């Protein structure tokens, strides 16, 4: 198990594009070494007992995938600092203890996949639904009592989430459960059926409004 990002990595920093550290539950205390590996495009720090987003991430401007699953994150207040990661398209934060998703999630404009499953979320900020490129949202295993209101979704779909407002979709509300899987669907152009899944299984949602085409 590691207590710090190995200094030896600096010797190959110019050619290193992917770094995986699975620390088996031991706390990774010093991450300043990450600042020198500026060409990283994929970073995994799992089971490192991280309780906050590391400040060293701000230097990794080429990062496309950030995987911090299986840690001890409770707050995501530092999300605003990730505004410099303009290529970040995949953010995995499953199996943490996140209590709230801050409105600053809206600065992550390149996000296509956001995994927040198995946390302790009780609500979702409207800013989440301003992410134009978001194609997959995983929310299973949280404490969400309800889905976004029809007023919120229709407003965002017509003004800030264009792929929810294509003439062939005419979406009015978030809609339809596929069997009992807990997959909520939203129309997109990418899926052959016109829908991509939003997974909200194992939450507290009791009623879904029907999709009206």
From TrEMBL:
PROSITE patterns from the UniProt entry: LRR
Gene3D superfamilies tied to this protein: Ribonuclease Inhibitor
SUPFAM superfamilies the record matches: Outer arm dynein light chain 1 (SSF52075)
GO-annotated cellular components: cytoplasm
Key words, A-Z: Leucine-rich repeat, Repeat
Pfam family, one: LRR_1
Protein name, as recorded: Uncharacterized protein
Species this protein is from: Poecilia latipinna (sailfin molly)
């Amino acid at each position: 198990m590691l207590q710090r990002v190995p200094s030896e990595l600096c010797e190959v920093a110019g050619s290193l594009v992917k770094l995986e550290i699975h620390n088996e539950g031991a706390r990774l205390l010093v991450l300043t070494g990450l600042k020198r590996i500026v060409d990283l495009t994929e970073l995994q720090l799992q089971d490192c007992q991280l309780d906050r987003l590391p400040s060293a991430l701000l230097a990794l401007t080429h990062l496309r995938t950030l995987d911090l699953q299986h840690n001890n994150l409770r707050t995501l207040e530092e999300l605003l600092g990730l505004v410099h990661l303009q290529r970040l398209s995949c953010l995995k934060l499953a199996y943490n203890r996140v209590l709230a998703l801050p409105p600053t999630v809206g600065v992550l404009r390149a996000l296509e996949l956001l995994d927040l499953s198995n946390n302790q979320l009780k609500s979702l900020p409207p800013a989440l639904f301003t992410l134009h490129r978001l194609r997959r949202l995983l929310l299973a295993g949280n404490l969400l009592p309800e889905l976004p209101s029809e007023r919120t979704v229709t407003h965002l779909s017509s003004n800030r989430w264009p792929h929810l407002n294509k003439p062939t979709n005419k979406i009015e509300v978030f809609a339809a459960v596929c069997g009992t899987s807990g997959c909520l669907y939203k129309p997109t152009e990418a899926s052959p059926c016109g829908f991509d899944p939003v997974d909200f299984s194992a939450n507290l949602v009791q009623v879904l409004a029907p999709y009206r085409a």
